[in-house]
């Protein structure tokens, strides 16, 4: 299966979930994290999803799917246990050129969801083209052990440092050199192992002009949040 990987901004966008089981619940949680405007359609829902809908003020229609439900949606998830309904949703999506993910049919889906590792702004995804999702899960579990919370904290620090470096280092080659040195996995992992050594090495990677503007010792007082 040939796919084009993409990260979508769904904030404020209407997304439809048809189905009320565990798969629908998992989709709803991830979509809420993306700040999507979720609409759920299903005659019944599992308890976890019911409480989730109530707690997050999600629009829920307790009935069977209608084709009108897909009006003004940018993405639809067909996750019912009814093959006929899922296929109907896929057909309507194809007719109206809409993105659809069909839980029980890779062939009818216009996109798939990869296994996901997220640490703050760091996002890693793994996919196997639908051939063996269990392998995606296994690789994701291995990656989770390699990319811990220190990467989240480091990228929060880069939100502060990067604009300062760009604004104060005029030479483009020097800027690139600084960013290459900062993109050091061993340096980042020191955050979880030895914060004092991390701070020392980080300071060595930064020009004096940047160190003067950004008080890293002050930022480090709370242990960088770890």
Automatic annotation (TrEMBL):
Catalyses: precorrin-2 + NAD(+) = sirohydrochlorin + NADH + 2 H(+)
For whether the record's keyword set contains NAD, the answer is yes
One GO biological process from the UniProt record? siroheme biosynthetic process
**What general EC class does the enzyme of this chain belong to?**
oxidoreductase
Q: What GO MF annotations does this protein's record show?
A: ferrochelatase activity; precorrin-2 dehydrogenase activity
Q: In which pathway does it act?
A: Porphyrin-containing compound metabolism; siroheme biosynthesis; sirohydrochlorin from precorrin-2: step 1/1
Q: What is its EC number?
A: 1.3.1.76
State one Pfam family annotation: NAD_binding_7
Protein biosynthesis as a keyword of this entry, yes or no, is no
Q: Give the record's keywords alphabetically.
A: NAD, Oxidoreductase, Porphyrin biosynthesis
How is this protein named in the record? precorrin-2 dehydrogenase
Q: Which organism is it from?
A: Orenia metallireducens
Q: Please spell out the taxonomic lineage of the organism that makes this protein.
A: Bacteria, Bacillati, Bacillota, Clostridia, Halanaerobiales
